[in-house]
């Protein structure tokens, strides 16, 4: 709470605080300001709180409030909510973990993330009134300073503040594989007009056929980048089975990408790495590599020669080429590259087909193989003017063409 950085690290070698501000639209800038352990200040929890909180509320664009005497109050419920979120992040963190305490301030909201899972059920957190701090002595010290709440009422104040501003409700989520808990506080209306306009423009006529639940799921995926069935239940009253059915439908149409299994299943928008651009057009490249979501017959493929039903003779030939990679869990990168070049030697193949043939996740194929091979001139794009084209596909560059391009 009050120690010197060196002493803290002697006791907790993995202790780490990472505060970032991302207040620029420039995608090349990872952050506009960052505060972390750098030896230039004593990074104990007390100093961390005051340094970070001051920046969290700086230029906070919310209407001011008046007290009973009609005098302007310097602090609103949003200020109070941010204080609660920051204090909770610091006192509920598992300081034995190798994961950092992370706080991010962006143009459209805040993200608080701490190592360690929730110690009470998620529903109890939203209901309030229950508190089970991981570090009760830290909680006591913050309370003695007039910071932090007792009896589990702090999160209720966060919900109240966001409801008053008519912002999208805070979302608490756990990443089970990382043992991390995150609190996302978006400062946007529930369905921003600009997002809905973009959805209508991209999906086209199909948007009118989307149900209310479908639209809410897509908006949540856009806002929070990654969601689960449990997350959606925070906003909807439908039974989890009904939500699962809608999620499956959105995945099958290529409007959501699925990853993980069972309770760890997460959903993102295709091309979610570009949060400013909604890419919701259906495309076979977004199907996860499992028979459950892969189109079962040719009628689901766009009328294009590079899409082959799994039952076709040509697809079976491609399966035979990829079989050594698909059969082995671990194999050299060079071996995978050679097979990709052979698969794409006669025709353009989309990412989803490559992933299915090789038995790998689409993101793995894209990031570790396809994109580097394009940059090296080994693969060419069917739509070179737009790498993220919804019907993008890849073909091997012939040696003669490659040498000709190099000479030019």
How does this structure look, described?
By secondary structure, the protein is of the alpha+beta class. Helix content is 40%, strand content 12%. It is built from 16 helices and twelve strands. The protein has helices at 5-11, 45-56, 77-91, 122-127, 136-144, 154-164, 193-203, 206-209, 212-224, 229-233, 240-252, 313-327, 333-343, 351-358, 362-375, 399-407, and strands spanning 17-22, 33-36, 65-66, 72-73, 101-106, 109-115, 171-175, 180-186, 257-259, 266-268, 379-381, 394-396. The strands form four sheets. Strands 2-1-5-6-8-7 form a six-stranded mixed beta sheet, covered by helices on one side. It has a two-stranded antiparallel sheet with strand order 3-4. A two-stranded antiparallel ribbon has the order 9-10. The radius of gyration is 25 Å and the shape is globular. The N and C termini lie far apart (63 Å).
């Amino acid at each position: 709470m009050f120690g010197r950085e060196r002493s803290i690290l002697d006791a907790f070698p993995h202790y780490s605080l990472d505060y970032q501000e991302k207040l620029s639209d420039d995608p090349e800038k990872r952050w506009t300001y960052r505060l972390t352990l750098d030896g230039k200040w004593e990074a104990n929890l007390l100093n961390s709180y005051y340094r970070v909180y001051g920046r969290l509320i700086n230029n906070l664009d919310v209407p001011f409030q008046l007290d009973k005497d009609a005098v302007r109050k310097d602090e609103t419920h949003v200020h109070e909510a941010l204080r609660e979120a920051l204090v909770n992040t610091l006192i509920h963190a598992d300081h034995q973990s190798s994961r950092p305490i992370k706080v991010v301030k962006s143009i459209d909201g805040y993200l608080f993330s701490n190592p360690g899972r929730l110690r009470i059920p998620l529903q109890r957190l939203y209901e309030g009134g229950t508190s089970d701090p991981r570090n009760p002595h830290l909680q006591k010290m913050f309370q003695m300073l007039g910071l932090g709440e007792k009896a589990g009422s702090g999160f209720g104040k966060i919900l109240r503040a966001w409801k008053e501003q008519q912002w999208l409700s805070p979302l608490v989520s756990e990443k089970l594989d990382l043992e991390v808990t995150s609190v996302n506080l978006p400062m946007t209306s529930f369905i921003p007009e600009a997002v809905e306009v973009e959805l209508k423009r991209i999906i086209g006529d199909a948007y009118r056929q989307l149900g209310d639940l479908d639209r809410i799921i897509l908006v949540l995926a856009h806002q929070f980048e990654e969601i689960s069935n449990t997350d959606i239940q925070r906003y909807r009253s439908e039974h989890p089975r009904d939500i699962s059915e809608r999620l499956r439908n959105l995945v099958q149409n290529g409007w959501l990408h699925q990853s993980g299994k069972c309770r760890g299943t997460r959903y993102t928008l295709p091309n979610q790495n570009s949060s400013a651009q909604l890419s919701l057009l259906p495309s076979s490249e977004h199907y996860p590599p499992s028979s459950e979501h892969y189109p079962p017959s040719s009628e689901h493929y766009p009328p294009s020669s590079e899409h082959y039903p799994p039952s076709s003779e040509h697809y079976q030939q491609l399966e035979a080429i990829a079989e050594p990679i698909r059969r082995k869990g671990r194999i050299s990168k060079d071996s995978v590259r050679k097979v990709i070049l052979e698969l794409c030697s006669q025709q353009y193949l989309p990412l989803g087909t490559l992933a299915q043939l090789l038995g790998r996740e689409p993101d793995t194929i894209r990031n570790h193989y396809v994109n580097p091979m394009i940059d090296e001139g080994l693969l060419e794009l069917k739509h070179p003017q737009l790498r993220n084209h919804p019907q993008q596909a890849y073909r091997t560059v012939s040696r003669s063409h490659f040498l000709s391009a190099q000479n030019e």
